[in-house]
């Protein structure tokens, strides 16, 4: 394989992974835009939605019916969260809302284990997992699953970005995030907005759970994997839907390129400076995103597309 085609294969693999990171990050962005708080429970929502979906499939339900019923469950969950938790925390400090989402996460995880158990559930929704070989002599391999997942995630992220940017609900959502009381004073139904946003975030969690569950199996580790979206949010900005897309692509491509090209270069530099031969670095892909996010926090904490917050005293 020529160096160019190998580089292109690594880059595309990272971009495909990045679109799935963007999909998970989108759920965090929607909640943050509606309440101004990081929703710690989003990863658990991905797990819970995937468990419900695969559980219904194991009961013999058709895929379409299982998906529709699971969406209904996530909508009911959104209504319950608004009714029992958020309604009582209007205009409270963001840290209080954040602590509430931590409690929601632990409750939902325990509830999911109580209903569906803690076993790993294999999931197959018919997405092909064969490989295509492209290039003049078939030098580059593309996994059909990665391509299909990237297309699904990209379409969903794009549609939701347009919806929340150009619709009345999107404008109301931004007003609610800025000031709860001010939004209420101009007639924006705060409770309805929260239900809508949490329902959409639940639907996004279902799609993310299906895609990640199809690749890794539906297991409780999904709630931890979903937190990989945190560096994506830091790069793109917590309030920007397009930022979730760009941040995901940067993280996805960056971690693949760092693993393949960055790790050997760093190992060679360390070996040259220390005089120790045969130094190897592994696991760069696991921590690269967080290191990159740390540098963004130092120099541009609002992210690439986030709004700069200026407080006057």
Number of strands: 2
Rg estimate, integer Å: 21 Å
Structural class: mainly alpha
Number of helices: 12
| Low-pLDDT windows of residues | none
If you average the pLDDT, what whole number results? 81
State the end-to-end CA separation: 61 Å
Domain count, please report it. Answer: 1
Beta-strand portion reads: under 5%
Percent of residues in helical segments? over 70%
> What is the ordering of alpha helices and beta strands?
HHHHEEHHHHHHHH
The strands making up the biggest β-sheet line up spatially as 1-2
What composes the largest sheet? Answer: 2 strands, antiparallel
Q: What is the overall silhouette?
A: globular
Keyword list:
313 residues, mainly alpha, two-stranded antiparallel sheet, 12 helices, globular
Structure description:
Helix content is 72%, strand content 3%. With 313 residues, the chain is mainly α. It has one domain. The protein has a two-stranded antiparallel sheet. Helix 3 crosses helix 8 (190-216). The chain is globular, with a radius of gyration of 21 Å.
List the helices and strands and how they pair.
Blueprint: H1 3-35, H2 42-58, H3 63-84, H4 94-116, E1 131-134, E2 140-143, H5 144-166, H6 168-178, H7 180-185, H8 190-216, H9 222-225, H10 229-236, H11 241-274, H12 284-299
Antiparallel strand pairs: 1-2
Helix pairs in contact: 1-5, 1-6, 1-8, 1-10, 1-11, 2-3, 2-4, 2-8, 3-8, 5-6, 5-8, 6-8, 10-11, 10-12, 11-12
Summarize the structure.
The chain has 313 residues and is an all-alpha fold. It has twelve helices and two strands; from the N terminus they run ααααββαααααααα.
